[in-house]
Design goal:
It is a single chain. With about 220 residues, the protein is α+β, with helices and mostly antiparallel strands. The protein has one domain. The protein contains six helices and eight strands.
Length: about 220
């Protein structure tokens, strides 16, 4: 009996240690994504081709920022990356977040090489905002998505979500059309220290992490 109890204690300790290690890794990843998102906002604001973006980023109802969206493949390909969602409280004109999300897609057909991109998706309608605040949605199906206007005098399409991309590589452009974007519950849990939903974070504002203050400040500043 004593041996069984001792064995059970060892097993329980091992499980707890693994869970603690996973939580630490998730928090480290979350912090890295937040820091990367700050860099993305700075890079986009400094890009001379992003005139429309700079003029309208603070008007978005919600945003999804992906520091690194990777696309690779040959015959079978795909893309993916983790980012943050922030939502604007239109009553106070303040931003709440971040909630963590991942974007993923697969594709068939001849493809070569790969690329990594910085992505900002701007929800310009309530439908687009609701999609970004949901647990999972498919871009283009649950909310319309189009490439954001680039260059002086460019005009935006009338869609729910506009996607802006800065990329290098053999793929001239990366589109999230058809991608599934889903909440990263484990990162939200690790970052805020308890289980929370996107609504808890982005609508109710029940939790906050001071580490994200610089991200919110950069987003609030917009083109400044």
């Amino acid at each position: 009996m004593f041996g069984l109890l001792a064995l059970s204690s060892v097993a329980l300790g091992s499980v707890q240690a693994l869970a603690s290690d996973d939580a630490a890794k998730d928090k480290a990843e979350a912090v890295k994504v937040v820091n990367g998102s700050v860099t993305v906002l700075k890079d986009f604001s400094a890009d001379p081709n992003m005139t429309w973006y700079r003029d309208n980023i603070t008007k978005a109802k919600a945003v999804l920022i992906i520091p690194t969206l990777v696309k690779a493949g040959f015959i079978f390909g795909g893309s993916g990356g983790t980012g943050v969602v922030l939502a604007r409280d239109e009553a106070t004109n303040t931003w709440k977040g971040p909630s963590f999300a991942t974007a993923a897609s697969v594709s068939w057909g001849f493809q070569a090489g790969g690329s990594a991109a910085q992505v900002v998706m701007m929800a310009m309608t309530d439908k687009g905002k609701d999609a970004l605040l949901s647990n999972k949605f498919q871009a283009g199906a649950d909310a319309s998505v189009a490439a954001g206007p680039v260059g002086a005098g460019a005009q935006a399409a009338t869609v729910d979500i506009l996607q802006f991309t800065r990329t290098k590589g053999l793929f001239g452009g990366l589109s999230l059309e058809g991608s599934v974007i889903a909440v990263r519950d484990s990162l939200n849990h690790a970052y805020f220290g308890k289980p929370v939903t996107p609504v808890d974070i982005l609508v109710k504002g029940d939790v906050r992490n001071p580490q994200a203050d610089v991200l919110i400040k950069q987003l609030t500043a917009g083109a400044k």
